[in-house]
Design a protein that fits this description.
The complex is a heterotrimer of chains A (530), B (102) and C (97). Chain A is of the alpha+beta class. Chain A has helices spanning 5-19, 21-34, 37-44, 57-71, 128-138, 144-168, 185-197, 200-213, 215-218, 220-226, 231-241, 260-270, 331-344, 350-378, 384-397, 399-413, 421-442, 445-461, 463-470, 475-481, 484-521, and strands at residues 77-81, 90-96, 107-113, 120-121, 244-254, 276-282, 294-299, 309-316, 319-328. The longest helix of chain A has 38 residues, at 484-521. With 102 residues, chain B is mainly alpha-helical. Chain B has one domain. Chain B is 82% helix and 0% strand. Chain B contains five helices and no strands. In chain B, helix 1 packs antiparallel against helix 3 (37-62). Chain C has one domain (5-96). The longest helix of chain C is centred in the N-terminal third of the chain and has 34 residues, at 5-38. The chains are: A alpha+beta (530), B mainly alpha (102), C mainly alpha (97). Chains in contact: A-B, A-C. The interface between A and C is medium-sized, with 33 and 28 residues.
């Protein structure tokens, strides 16, 4: 492409990064929020009653079973989620089968229990943390396959950007810790390096594993050619590749006595060191025939980067048998599994979870700083196009956080009885995002950046106050009640607000430099022939 | 506790490594003199050594897979912190040098 | 008709992008298929391995396409590799079927 290898690589780095930068920024931000999916979910369902003291497992079970019996006697699957540190509440969920007579389609239902009364706590209709994190690969408004393909393509560009970035960065070791502030473009390049090089293992891991998670869709012709064509065979391929190695054991529970309560007691005895996170009944039959039912116990705190261990109790030949999954059968499947676990980070405790989140944000910051550099390098011949891109940069880089704050605000402000409330929360995210873009398009870039930063600071700073006014949760009450998730969310939001405020305050100083260069740039530039 | 020792080991290791680079050496001890070769090599080797120790400690306390995740994640945190420290408050790091100097 | 320097550059870049993206996709798919067929052991295992490596091959292809001296040569490299692999795949299929 260019005369030397390094120059070609620099060219590729610039344009591979540029092409999908906005989409990648979106993916990194929403994906990072996914690491706090449960915590965000709790905030968006403020009605949930949090369990503070330890409740006896059997007691939880009794409460849950009572509700499930009345609400979901015909369901195919039952699950009881036990209070854990990340989800300190009791949740029951069930899979209602399709019923043609009543016109119901197959659907999951979930409800939260008040541990003190045993009643269902009605929660607001919300999209919650899950929908927010799913944005990072389904892109919401497009058909799901298009979302998958677009994110895959963007990730491929990201991978190319990372590899070429490492190649062109001559002094990767010498400038490992280098950040020279207040030097215009030099500082931006430094900060781009800091954001890229220091979390490089994370960036490479997250990009590559992201690609691999979607490889069945992006490289489906390969499965066509090697395994077989058609949806059914693809499904079969996934199922076979996910085959788990199983360990079998027999119990001395009499087959007639097999029920969730006996399973619970047996599991508690067998795995004394592990906490139970889920109890489930699968393949339920309405007439309570235990012959074919399976009883699942999910254990917390297993080894390594596995998230949980699954044990299933079933009646086999008149005897109750236990089946424990001990990892994937295929070695390539194991590698895939490791990458998937690393990508999702479900195993991470608070410390690692925060680092995952920060690394994700550093990735987003890397993309953002790359975009800013792209503009700054071209500002000398300030054309309309460059100006436009600078504006959209401001709209995307600061607008997206604002839009996400709008998502949180809409959760508190939309009327509770609104139809499709959850969907409208997401609509408000995108409406505000569009508004941010429009706002930036009509104002001068420097002004747009500054105003957006202040707006972001304000919208985040007022979020805890909004929370206090619309629900009974305030910073103080959360601290008193030991509702750490609620408190953590509110405090983090305040931290973000102050970061935006600091950025807005510092912005003026920083922006003198480019203003200066645009003065110079009006003179003819020998190299560009203007 | 394990996390704390992981962080402090890596902080020490990365600080030593950064001091083996003349730019940061100058920032920290405020001189234009280049560090002599033996000093650079002592700093570099001890830096890498301590980082290796940190990784071993990580693997020992969390197992291979999780230990590596912990070490890499901590490295990101520590190195970012250090980069900021070196830019804005380099003299905070002089303590290492005082200790090292006979 | 004479092309300006800019037009040549634009068409050159477009060609390379197409070679890199489309050619790279075909090349990495084909190599994934070949890896799946050639690796000994379980079929599922080899398919997953092939799929996982295809992204590495894709990335390397893109980098090679953009570092080769001329666009023509880049196209020729990718095209010839693809054809070679395609025939090899059919040859292998002839044996296994």
């Amino acid at each position: 492409m260019k005369s030397t290898f390094r120059q070609s690589m620099a060219w590729l780095h610039t344009w591979a990064g540029f092409t999908f930068a906005w989409l990648l920024f979106f993916i990194f931000i929403t994906g990072s929020l996914g690491y706090f999916e449960n915590e965000i979910d709790r905030w968006m369902k403020p009605e949930i009653v949090v369990v503070n003291e330890t409740i006896d497992d059997v007691e939880v079970f009794n409460l849950a079973k009572q509700q499930l019996n009345t609400l979901a006697s015909h369901a195919d699957k039952w699950y009881i989620a036990y209070p854990t540190t990340r989800d300190p509440f009791i949740k029951i969920s069930w899979l209602a089968l399709a019923n043609a007579e009543l016109g119901i389609s197959k659907q999951w239902h979930e409800e939260y229990l008040d541990p003190y009364t045993g009643n269902i706590t009605p929660t607001r209709d919300t999209s919650g943390g899950e929908t927010l994190y799913r944005l990072h690969y389904n892109l919401h408004y497009v058909p799901i396959v298009v979302g998958y393909l677009l994110t895959s393509l963007a990730s491929l560009f990201m991978l190319i950007g990372l590899v070429t970035g490492v190649i062109i960065h001559k002094k990767i070791f010498i400038e490992f810790f280098t950040f020279r502030s207040g030097k215009g473009l030099r500082s931006w390049l430094d900060i781009h390096n800091v954001f890229s090089v220091l979390p490089l293992p994370f960036h490479l891991m997250i990009t590559y594993s992201g690609l691999i998670l979607l490889m069945g869709i992006s490289f489906s012709p390969v499965i066509d050619a090697t395994y077989g064509e058609g949806r059914k065979l693809h499904r079969q391929f996934y199922d076979v590749s996910q085959t788990e190695n199983k360990r079998f054991d027999t119990t001395n529970i009499p087959a007639v006595d097999l029920s969730l309560s006996t399973v619970l007691l047996d599991a508690k005895q067998r795995y004394k060191n592990n906490n139970i996170s889920f109890l489930g009944v699968i393949d339920r039959s309405p007439n309570n025939n235990t012959e074919q039912m399976g009883f699942e116990v999910w254990l917390d705190g297993s080894e390594g980067i596995e998230f949980a261990t699954l044990i299933t109790y079933r009646v086999v030949n008149g005897q109750v048998q236990i089946e424990e999954s001990i990892g994937k059968k295929y070695s390539a499947g194991k590698v895939y599994d490791v990458l998937e676990h690393l990508h999702e980070g479900l195993f991470a405790g608070p410390y690692l979870r925060w680092l995952y989140f920060i690394s994700g944000l550093l990735g987003a910051a890397m993309i953002a700083s790359g975009m800013i550099i792209w503009v700054k390098k071209r500002q000398k011949n300030s054309t309309r196009l460059i100006n436009l891109i600078d504006r959209v940069n401001a709209a995307v880089i600061i607008g997206l956080p604002i839009a996400i704050a709008a998502y949180f605000w809409s959760n508190r402000l939309l009327p509770l009885e609104m139809v499709n409330r959850g969907a409208w929360e997401l609509h408000s995210l995108f409406i505000v995002f569009t508004m941010c873009i429009c706002f930036c398009l009509v104002s001068r870039p420097a002004k747009a950046w500054k105003n957006m930063l202040w707006l972001a600071a304000a919208i985040y700073a007022f979020l805890p106050i909004g929370n206090m006014l619309t629900t009974e949760h305030s910073l103080l009450s959360s601290a008193q009640e030991g509702d750490w998730l609620m408190l953590g969310f509110d405090v983090s939001v305040l931290v973000f607000a102050s970061c935006f405020a600091v950025a807005a305050a510092l912005f003026k100083k920083e922006h003198i430099a480019p203003e200066h260069t645009s003065e110079i740039s009006k003179k003819p530039h020998p190299e560009l022939g203007t | 506790m394990e996390i704390l020792s992981q962080i402090s080991l890596q902080l020490l290791g990365f600080t030593l490594l950064s001091l083996s680079l003349s730019r940061h050496y100058d920032q920290v001890i405020n001189s234009v003199k280049r560090p002599s070769k033996p000093i650079v090599w002592t700093l570099r080797l001890s830096g890498y050594g301590i980082l290796l120790l940190a990784i071993i400690q990580g693997i020992k306390s969390w197992g291979l897979a999780l230990g590596l995740v912990y070490s890499f994640a901590t490295a990101t945190l520590v190195a970012t912190l250090l980069a900021m420290l070196l830019t804005y408050k380099p003299h905070y790091l002089t303590f290492i040098f005082v200790r090292l100097k006979p | 008709m004479k092309f300006t320097k800019k037009q040549i550059l634009v068409s050159n870049v477009t060609c390379r992008v197409l070679i890199a993206l489309v050619g790279g996709y075909i090349l990495s798919s084909l190599s994934a298929i070949l890896i799946a067929l050639l690796l000994p052991g379980d079929k599922i295992n080899s398919i997953i391995t092939g799929l996982m490596l295809s992204f590495v091959i894709y990335t390397v292809t893109v980098i090679v396409v953009f570092t080769t001296k001329t666009t023509l040569r880049a196209g020729a490299i990718v095209f010839s590799l693809c054809t070679l692999m395609y025939f090899f795949y059919h040859y292998l299929n002839g044996i296994t079927v």
